[in-house]
Specification:
Elements: E1 4-13, E2 16-21, E3 24-29, H1 32-35, E4 44-54, E5 57-63, H2 66-76, H3 83-92, H4 95-103, H5 107-110, H6 118-128, H7 134-137, H8 148-155, H9 160-171, H10 176-184, H11 194-205
Helix pairs in contact: 2-3, 8-9, 8-10, 9-10, 9-11, 10-11
Length: 207
């Protein structure tokens, strides 16, 4: 029903913001990832929204990007996950961190969200692991101040899927040395693509 709402940020508290648009103050529930990046009160804001209707309520949930909204909607498709639980997960983990946790099958990270137990966390991974692509995970630029020269030098020590996995790990904030060490611990077979190598490498880095 609503794709996004653009207007003036009037106020905010806990998990809610109020955006005035068209003479109406829209009450929008948001995760911490939105609250942490809010403009000043009185400034313009644009949030992509999900409109959820129940028998006794109608609620708007808002996010700063279509990709984050997509992550919220994907969580709603998981058995046992409602809007409140989905928002709780996205407040405990940023959307990018959640995507990485799903790819790495890190149920412990997901289970840290309020009201989410180990079984539900594993269900999130089971239901969504085939729906998360690497394009949604990797940022557009290298993180952590790593230079492209350093990344290239590290990746040159391996070929194919291993090289791409190292580049992906560095883009996620690991140093070239950490990335190379993790990838070299993986037994890379001919049928493994870069995503499979990355997933295996992340398991080594988790310990």
């Amino acid at each position: 029903m609503f794709s996004y709402i653009k207007g003036t940020l009037e106020e905010y508290w806990e998990d809610t913001i109020v955006v005035e648009s068209g003479g109406i103050g829209w009450n929008i529930h948001v995760p911490l990832s939105v609250l942490d990046r809010l403009p000043h009160v009185g400034e313009q804001i644009k949030v992509y929204t999900s409109f959820q209707v129940k028998e006794d309520s109608m609620t708007l949930y808002g996010f700063f990007s279509r990709q984050d909204l997509k992550m919220f909607n994907q969580l709603l498709g998981v058995t046992g996950i409602g809007p409140k639980a989905a928002l709780g997960i996205l407040s405990s983990l940023s959307p990018d961190d959640l995507r990485m946790a799903i790819i790495a099958e890190d149920s412990k990270a997901i289970a840290k969200a309020p009201g989410i137990g180990p079984k539900t966390a594993k269900r999130v991974i089971l239901d969504l692991k085939d729906k998360i692509s690497m394009d949604e995970v990797l940022p557009l630029q290298f993180a952590g101040g790593q230079t492209e020269v350093a990344v290239t030098a590290a990746a040159s020590s391996v070929d194919g899927a291993g090289k791409e996995a190292i580049e992906a790990l560095v883009a996620l904030g690991y140093s070239p040395t950490e990335a190379t060490k993790a990838v070299r611990q993986v037994t890379i077979t001919e049928d493994m693509n870069s995503e499979a190598v990355l997933k295996a490498s992340l398991k080594f880095l988790a310990f």
